[in-house]
Each structure stands twice: as structure tokens, then as C-alpha cells.
Amino acid sequence: MTLEAYLLLALLLFSMGLYAVLARHNLIAILIGVELMLNAANINFLAFNYFLHLDPAMAQIIVLFVIGLAAAEAAIALAIILKLYRKHQSIDVDAMRELRG
Amino acid sequence: MNIAFTLPFAVIVIGAFLAVTRSNILHAVFGLAISLVGVAGAFLALGSPFTAVMEVLIYVGGIAVTMIFAVMLSSVSSPAERGGFLRKSLAALVAGLFLAGGSLIIVNADFGAGNHLSTDAWSIQAVGRDLLDRFNLAFESLSLVLLLAIVGAIVIVRREPVLPADQDDAPEEEAA
């Protein structure tokens, strides 16, 4: 397959993640959308490196770093979600109105 | 059509569709896991088995399972979706515009010659050598970030002591 096919796949995945972030009420569903977007970026890194003959190991290392940072981000986000659930008995983003956002 | 591309493509799109549309949050997490297995397949097709294994290990084995735990702990009695249709259609409009514009750019762009890498350039040996050589600082900082994230998550979810019974250990834990 060509580079463009993989880029379009990643773009489709990113758009679905964007839709989830914009449309969902549930904080965990929004986190799922963010994870989808990160994975789309990972596919892009590997596709560019595979098809354009760049550095031999660079893309894999970037992808590993992104996966590790995503793990840290998910841990923090889920901790915040649990704390918010204890405080508000809900993880609906529309219930978080204390800052009048 | 190339099966090494179409099979991960189908798995990714079906899983992501489930993850994005199901209103039951547990089904959405399972859709995310399916989609991530498809992403690992795409990594495999792009000649990088090591990152594919790491994707399955960390994402499906770690993040998705942690999300399921969070779903169970926050026992989602999902509230009625208020103003759902307008919000959904607006989000679909934005995402669709993004998709259309991005695909227009990708189709019209010129990325240069597309010659494949030889497979031995993608070996685990090269990754390991670079992780401990060229990217050693980033590698160690990442381990520090992960440690701080774990400690921070524990501190965030720690229950506040209801009674001021044991004042001796509380300030020390806050300082740590």
C-alpha cells in the first residue's frame, strides 16, 4: 500500500477521536477519543518513516515515547475522574460548572 | 487489495466506530481495545513488530483495563443525554470538515519517492541501541514522568481523613 493510504487511515481515526472529544458527555468517553487521536499520530509517524526511508529507529522510539506518555496521561486522567465522581457523583462534563466555564 | 492493509483498516474503523458511538461506556472501552489491536496490526504491516507488541501490552493490557476499572469504580448511571442531537451534529460537522480538508491535503501533497526500508534496519537491536545511546536522556526522563504520574495519581485519589484523628502522619504525606 502507499503512504497516502496510511495517512488517510490515520486521518479517519483522528477525526473519529475528535468527534468523540466534542460530542460525548462522559469524561471517560472523552479520554477514549484522546487515545484514538494519539494512535492516529503514531500511525503517521511509522508510515512516514516506513515509506520515506528516514532514520532506521527514530519513528519506533517516538512511538514508544508517545505510548509511555499516554499511559501516564491515562493514569492521571482516571485519578481525576475518580476524584470528580466522589465529589459530584457524576462524570458528566456538563455537571462541572464550578468555574462557570 | 492488500490484506496486510485492509484487515487492520477494517478492525481499526469498526473498533473506533464502536468506541465513539456506543452510549454504554463499557462497550466504548471494548471498542477502543478492538481499535487498538487493529492499530497494532497496522504497526506490524509497517514493519515494526516491537512497537506492535508494546501497543498491545501497554494500551490493551494496561490503559484499556485501567479504564474498565475506572468505569466500574465510578458506576456510571449515565444521565439522560440533554441537548444531545445538536451537540452531536455540531461535533460531526467539525470532524467531517476536518476529515474532508485533511484528505484533500493528503491527496494533493507530494511526499517524494516511496521506497521501502530494508527490514533489518527496523530491528529491535537498533531500537535498543538508540534508546540507551542517542535518546538516553529522553528515555530516563520518561521513566521519571511515569513515576511522578503514578505518585500523583495516588495522591489525587487518596481519601481525605474524615476525622482529624491522626494528625501526625497527614502533613508528612502531603509534603511527599
Biggest pleated sheet of chain A:
none
Overall average residue pLDDT of chain B: 82
| Overall morphology of chain B | extended
Q: Under the CATH scheme, which architecture of the domain at 1-75 in chain B would be assigned? A: Up-down Bundle
Radius of gyration of chain B using CA atoms only: 22 Å
Number of strands of chain B: 0
What is the average per-residue confidence, as pLDDT of chain A, rounded to a whole number? Answer: 86
Biggest interface, residues from each chain: A-B, 72 and 84 residues
Number of helices of chain A: 3
Q: H/E series of chain A, N to C? A: HHH
Helix % of chain B is over 70%
| SSE-based structural type of chain B | mainly alpha
What Rg of chain A, in angstroms, do the CA atoms define? 17 Å
Compute the number of structural domains of chain A: 1
CATH class bucket of chain A: Mainly Alpha
Task: State the assembly state of the protein chains.
Answer: heterodimer
Number of beta strands of chain A: 0
CATH fold group of the domain at 1-75 in chain B: Four Helix Bundle (Hemerythrin (Met), subunit A)
Low-confidence stretches of chain A: none
Q: Strand fraction band of chain A?
A: under 5%
Write up this protein.
The complex is a heterodimer of chains A (101) and B (176). Chain A is mainly alpha-helical. Chain A has 3 helices and no strands. Chain A has helices spanning 3-23, 27-52, 58-88. In chain A, helix 1 (3-23) runs antiparallel to helix 2 and helix 2 (27-52) runs antiparallel to helix 3 (58-88). By secondary structure, chain B is mainly α. Among the domains of chain B are: 1-75, NADH-ubiquinone/plastoquinone oxidoreductase chain 6, subunit NuoJ (Four Helix Bundle (Hemerythrin (Met), subunit A), Up-down Bundle); 123-159. Helix content of chain B is 72%, strand content 0%. Chain B is built from 7 helices and no strands. In chain B, helix 1 packs antiparallel against helix 2 (25-45) and helix 2 (25-45) packs antiparallel against helix 3 (49-73). Classes of the chains: A mainly alpha (101), B mainly alpha (176).
